[in-house]
Amino acid sequence: MKNALRLVIPVLVTCVVAAAGLALTYKVTEPKIAEQDRLAEERSLQAVLPDATFTCLESSRIQDDIDAAAGAVDVLDTFHAEIGGEHAGWAVKVASRGYGGPMVVVIGLDTSGSVSGVTILSHNETPGLGTKVITDEWFLEQFPTLEAGFTDADVRGLDAISGTTKSSNGVRNGVAAVGRVYTEVLSGLGEGGFE
Amino acid sequence: MSEWFRVFKQGLSIENPLTVLMIGLCATLAVSTQFQNALFMGFAVIFVLTMSNVLVSVFRRLIPSEVRIPIFIVVIASFVTIVDLVMKAFVPSVYSVLGIWIPLIVVNCVILGRAEAFAYQNTVGLSAADGLGMGIGYSAVIVLLALIRELFGTGRIVWFDGVLFSLPAGYAPPSLLLLFPGAFLVFAFMIVGARWINERFEARKEAPACRP
């Protein structure tokens, strides 16, 4: 018993001190990190639909429909975009499975439902390999060729990067899910139905 | 003081963690595709290595040897998490690229290895010297490796949004250098270079003793 305590107490003390130190660091850095995350989200929204202001859709009824349409892909947020008070399109933030876990992808749609841009907000893909979906710029640039009412088959018709199939598919599945969300839910929302 | 400096120098030269001891290579080869990332990785390793060495050394008499490894891991993991949070808050563009490699410093053999092999048996001052020396030795190698791979693999050196230096436009960079085989090739040449330098220095030190 005495021997057990001799071993347990140092480990316990180490863990308590470490936890306290980490809690303190977290408290100091947390607002900064939240601010950085917000800026990153704002930047990627601006990249897919420049000059727009975005409001997040908060209706839970719409969210249920969106989740049903998206299937295996998680829809994190749906934004309604406006330029000068005019309806300018949508931006959808999805989490789609890549090689190293979920990749958070932001997809912009213009008023007709064609893709206006795709950016990757965060990911855990293999550096130098899976990250080619970002660094090989042609990959993300091919998505805006998708016209209004695009289907899963249209998205599958786009090129993947060889050697990074899973990461490429992560992005493509995300875009395909947003295509379904638009066709089944967003296109049905009238001008007044955003609130 | 001379002992302190001797220990510090060992990490840079004859006991360099990368070119001589060859530990902690996985992250090194993966991260060294860009000068900027390698530099921040180096800073992170210097910080974690020095802090964990000092802390382990301060409490070395209080840590029972049966449970030393779990205690080392908790200490190292805490410092790594601190670096992780701080980088996320202040240099998010670097963090987004280094991503998983920062948390993986926890299992980087250099750090646990030095806690176990050096700090647990030596005084605080010497452990700090060892941590700094090993950390700077690690950083020097990873930064040089990254400079070579980035310069010749992409034709330029990037620093955040700007370009620091670029080769003439006619240069067609072989992407092999950026891929893993390139890392191994360049690294092998660096080991040769490090051996050559170390041997020359040793030869110079021994020379007067041999000749009467």
Task: Note the main attributes of this structure.
heterodimer, A: 195 residues, five-stranded antiparallel beta sheet, 6 helices, B: 212 residues, mainly alpha, two-stranded antiparallel sheet
Strand order of the largest sheet of chain B: 1-2
Order of secondary-structure elements of chain B = HHHHHHHEEH
Enumerate the spans of chain A where pLDDT stays under 50 for 5 or more consecutive residues: none
**Overall form of chain A:** elongated
How many domain modules of chain B? 1
Tally of contiguous helical segments of chain B: 8
Q: How many strand units of chain A? A: 5
Following the backbone from N to C, one meets helices and strands of chain A in this order, namely HEHEEEEHHHH
- The rough form of chain B would be described as globular
Q: State the distance separating the first and last CA atoms of chain B.
A: 30 Å
Helix content of chain A: 40-55%
How are the SSEs ordered, and which strands pair?
The complex is a heterodimer of chains A (195) and B (212).
Chain A: H1 2-48, E1 53-56, H2 60-70, E2 74-83, E3 86-97, E4 102-109, E5 115-122, H3 132-135, H4 137-141, H5 152-156, H6 165-184
Antiparallel strand pairs in A: 1-2, 2-3, 3-4, 4-5
Helix pairs in contact in A: 2-6
Chain B: H1 2-12, H2 25-31, H3 35-58, H4 68-90, H5 92-98, H6 109-119, H7 124-154, E1 156-159, E2 162-166, H8 180-210
Antiparallel strand pairs in B: 1-2
Helix pairs in contact in B: 1-7, 3-4, 3-6, 3-7, 4-5, 4-6, 6-7, 7-8
Please provide a brief summary of the model.
The complex is a heterodimer of chains A (195) and B (212). By secondary structure, chain A is an alpha+beta fold.
